[in-house]
Design brief:
By secondary structure, the protein is an alpha+beta fold. Helix content is 26%, strand content 18%.
Length: 125
């Protein structure tokens, strides 16, 4: 999986990062482009997970989620599609890619406007 690090920039994570999976209720989060930090205690042998939505906002990709958590959203989509309370939670934890966090900290109406626009619409503007 490619990791989005800017509005049009992506990297291919190296080992051991390729073994980290998605969860709608993650035990880790990305700080910066490559630093994974624990959000909860992670037991030996427990899978390390982060919410892919905290690193995506290009309007080009979504995926069915099968994380199995009782709070599973069923679909992994861009940050703009997360409920506002969850967006705010991740922003407060500091585990949202910088290029996304900057957009969502601008103005309250930015979140709603961006949720309605596709990547192509923003690129044309």
């Amino acid at each position: 999986m490619l990791l989005q690090t800017g509005s049009r920039t992506y990297i291919l994570p190296e080992s051991p990062s390729v073994y980290v999976n998605h969860s709608c209720v993650p035990n880790a989060g990305l700080v910066g482009n490559r630093k994974l930090v624990a959000l909860t205690d992670i037991l030996p042998g427990e899978q390390v997970t982060f919410d892919y939505s905290t690193s995506m906002d290009d309007g080009l990709w979504s995926m069915e989620c099968r994380c199995g958590h009782r709070e599973c959203r069923g679909l992994i989509e861009d940050f703009r599609h997360l409920p506002r309370r969850l967006q705010q939670h991740y922003l407060e934890l500091g585990v949202v890619q910088g290029f996304i966090a900057r957009r969502y900290r601008q103005r309250p109406e930015t979140q709603e406007t961006m949720a309605q626009q596709s990547f192509a619409d923003r690129a044309i503007a």
